[in-house]
Design a protein that fits this description.
The structure holds two protein chains of two kinds. By secondary structure, chain A is mostly helical. In chain A, α3 runs antiparallel to α4. Chain A is elongated and about 55 Å long. Chain A starts with a helix and ends with a helix. By secondary structure, chain B is mainly alpha-helical. Chain B is built from eleven helices and three strands. In chain B, a hairpin with a 3-residue loop joins β1 and β2. Classes of the chains: A mainly alpha, B mainly alpha. At the A-B interface, α1, α4, α5 and α6 of A face α4, α6, α9, α10 and α11 of B.
Chain lengths: 145, 270
Amino acid sequence: MICGAIAAAGFGVLFNIGFRSLPWCAASGALALGMRTCCLDGLHWNLEAATFAAALTVGAAVQVLRFRTDISQNALDVVGCIPMVPGSFAAKAILGMFALTSNTVDPSETLFTAVQYALRVTFTVGAIGTGLAIPTLLLRVRVLR
Amino acid sequence: METIENLVLEDSGSAPALEPLAMVALDAGRMIMEAGASANGVNEIVDKIARGLGAERVDLRVGYASLAITIGIGPNGITRMRKVGHLGVNQRIDQELQHLADRVLRGELTTDQTREELARFATGTPRHSAWVMALAVGLACAAFGRLLKVDWLGTGPVFVAACIGQLVRRELLTRHVNVFICATLVAFLSSLLGGLGAHWCQSATISTAMIASILLLVPGVPSVNAQSDIMDGHPTLGSARAVTVAVILIFVALGLWLGQVLLSHLGIPT
């Protein structure tokens, strides 16, 4: 959770969020990583499902807190979920594709691993986007009514 | 050939002029889009500003590289388009525009005053200094490294490599180097420094340290925006963002691969 908080706050600075709002970013990142770890280690869910649950939790928490923070809702929930974006999987997937062109690797095994990483990236990013969107879309339906 | 001005319908004296209204609304949309907003965020701001300045009908098309708006007051209407620049992330501009749009919607500002405010945001919105950003990014990547199970010996090099990578990235972008080339150069430099540092510190996780050093380049906001845009009914924009994210990742991976190849030639296992 501490690592998640540091990563989210660090990216908050990169996104030009003011120092006063950085604790909210850190809290958002800590909540995301805490929830994901609970689902991974406690409930033994897979990474994609745990990421979805974490993003849903962050999205809902940001909706509840959106009038208390001086930071846009979109920025806060995205910054919180940044530590869950599977950048290392994406790099490994593309490097696996590169490796396929060399003759020194077992092509079927390398292809299998690269495709597996690519699918995990796709599903994890999808889980983040869907998890963040659901609370917003539900709230919008309620406001329209 | 007729100039654009000659094609604009003459406004009645009672209605606000359409041309400045459309251009101010488009400028606000362009600024918030360049600050990293999703299509819905852009739509909301433009709609509030245009209606606050007197528009009765507002239709906006949000594209990846341009915005087009049709504004109507009574029987008069106008359609204008505006080019959108590089899509970055700047939360303070986003926040300022949200507040401005609310003020305009409440009728507190005229078109000229709104334009002045937008010009002030463009030039006067503060940014964190390069060193603060570099330190923050270094810390973030080091934290990512710990999440990816980089050992403590490799965490320091990740911090240093990401700090230097961020400083170089900022310098390259200031010099208007192409973002994809910039991604490859920074990925190469950061992964090389991260790998060399981890090797010198006798870390057992050199390969993961190299990957953690380049995570500052992963386009997290565009990838989340891509999906939310598609879900919000903007599949064209969402697809364009997704393709851009994919190409950036390929260029980042290329830089990482070059770093790994160089380290292998130096006899360092990656």
